[in-house]
Design brief:
alpha+beta, five-stranded antiparallel sheet, 33% helix, 475 residues, 14 helices, seven-stranded antiparallel sheet, globular
Length: 475
């Protein structure tokens, strides 16, 4: 059965909700709640609820359900697919987790940390580090991204190769379901085989099935020694062979393996971003490799041995191995600033995709060739090649702007996404679906999966109040 259209968060609803909450929980949403980083969506003027407890979150959602008012979850606002902004339809209420930002407990001997859903990712990393532990989820936005949003979008980042996605780093959740019930699933157990795992249902659901208010997270030993190197490779195919060689030499001690195209380095200068480049001229293809070694092993020596073997095999032509933490930080700053350079220059069409590892070279070759048939463009291809995730972004030539090519954006997107689909890949590797890719999910998603997703949404959220229009089209 199709749910009835939602009501707007009008003055009557807000007055009733305000009376049920502590003072200063509800306020007018300022501009930061109505924008998203890419500037594609603009939210409608509305109110934002800023609860301080899970019980208050439940109060908000119960009232919204009773009034059939949509609720848009808001974490750090760093999402790149519009999941945190609703610009169409009935005016929703924004529900922000920013006041629920505490580290609840660190169980160092268990390698577990428990945090509020609104805890900032960098604060979680710091709390773990203070206890001699590592929380390995790492993103460019970690200073403002919140763990509830990271889990709701199943965030990836640079450490997926070794530690997995956000899904793999979570033991338990506390959440408020669409009917206002609090699910107390904040277990620290690593074995808990008691039926359906609601944790995995909520992770990646982008707030459409409930609001994450707390999380029990996996911690890891801090590597005794870490090291980084930037190695110039002949091609993406050589980069994949280098990855295999690195794993042969170092096993699971390879923490990150990033592919960087020369265009990305050139964009850094063009965008006026200050970074220390280790090469006089940007190489065509570079790999940034990060290792975390156990006691007694020296990273620089291990990377030197790897470089020698790769050079002998004809995989690398040059390279720089970090001799200290500052040099390693400089390498990573190059990688982390590329998305900001992209933003300043302005892409025509951006693609967060994944393909099987062995398909990466053919994807880059074929994707570049297909875009070139549309005209002259610059392509910045970079990403977490160790897990098959590439950011394949198309930019105008110097002197042109993306506005000059807006009529080609849709064609570019479908060229690349159709290619990804033919290769057995995903058109959303780590950013999620949000509102931006609802049509892509319908175009490329497996029909049986989509049917099951709609059935789950209807069962848990029959009124469709939770993040309406995100992931699944609002009917």
């Amino acid at each position: 059965m199709t749910p009835k259209p939602l009501n707007s968060a009008d003055a009557s609803f807000l007055s009733s909700l305000e009376a049920a909450l502590p003072a200063d929980t509800l306020r007018a949403a300022d501009v930061r709640y109505l924008e998203e980083p890419r500037g594609i969506y603009k939210g409608q003027p509305t109110a934002v609820a800023l609860p301080r407890s899970t019980q208050e979150v439940a109060t908000v959602i119960r009232h919204a359900g009773a009034a059939r008012v949509g609720v848009v979850p808001y974490g750090g606002g760093t999402g790149l697919v519009g999941g945190q902004v609703a610009q169409d339809g009935s005016v929703p209420l924004i529900l922000s987790m920013e006041r629920m930002n505490q580290i609840r407990a660190v169980h160092a001997d268990e390698n577990v940390l428990v945090a509020d859903g609104g805890a900032i990712l960098a604060d979680i990393q710091s709390a773990a580090d203070a206890q001699g532990r590592l929380f390995p989820l790492s993103l460019a936005s970690e200073g403002s991204a919140r763990i509830g949003g990271n889990l709701a979008t199943n965030a990836g980042g640079t450490g997926v190769l070794r530690y997995g996605n956000a899904r793999d780093l979570c033991l338990g959740l506390e959440a408020v379901l669409p009917d206002g019930q609090i699910w107390n699933g904040l277990t620290r157990l690593r074995k808990n085989n008691t039926g359906y795992d609601l944790r995995h249902l909520l992770i990646g659901a982008e707030g459409t099935l409930g609001m994450i208010t707390g999380a029990a997270l996996k911690l890891f030993p801090v590597p005794a020694q870490t090291g980084s190197a930037m190695l110039v490779v002949q091609s993406p195919a050589a980069a994949l062979k280098l990855l295999s060689l690195a794993r042969d030499h170092l096993g699971e001690m390879v923490s990150a393996f990033e592919l960087i195209h020369g265009q990305g380095m050139r964009f850094l200068a063009e965008a006026g971003l200050e970074v220390r480049l280790p090469f006089d001229e940007a190489p065509e293809w570079t790999v940034l490799i990060d290792v975390g070694l156990s006691g007694g092993l020296i990273p620089a020596d291990a990377l030197e041995t790897l470089f020698a073997a790769a050079y002998e095999a004809g995989l690398v032509m040059d390279g720089v191995i970090a001799q200290n933490q500052q040099q390693s930080d400089d390498f990573w700053r190059i990688r982390e600033m590329i998305p900001e350079a992209n933003r300043r220059i302005g892409s025509i069409s951006s693609h967060d995709i994944s393909v099987p590892l062995s398909a990466i070279p053919d994807f880059i070759t074929q994707g570049t060739a297909q875009i070139s048939e549309l005209g002259a463009f610059r392509i910045n291809c970079f990403g977490h090649v160790g897990d098959g995730n590439l950011h394949f972004n198309v930019f105008p030539m110097p002197g042109k702007s993306r506005a000059d090519h807006q009529n080609q954006r849709e064609e570019m997107k479908y060229l690349i996404h159709d290619l990804v689909d033919r290769m057995g890949g995903s058109v959303s590797a780590e950013h999620g679906i949000g509102r931006l890719k609802v049509g892509d999910l319908e175009r490329y998603g497996d029909p049986a999966k989509l049917s099951a997703m709609r059935a789950i949404k209807a069962a848990l959220d029959p009124q469709g109040i939770m993040n309406p229009g995100a992931v699944l089209r609002q009917t």
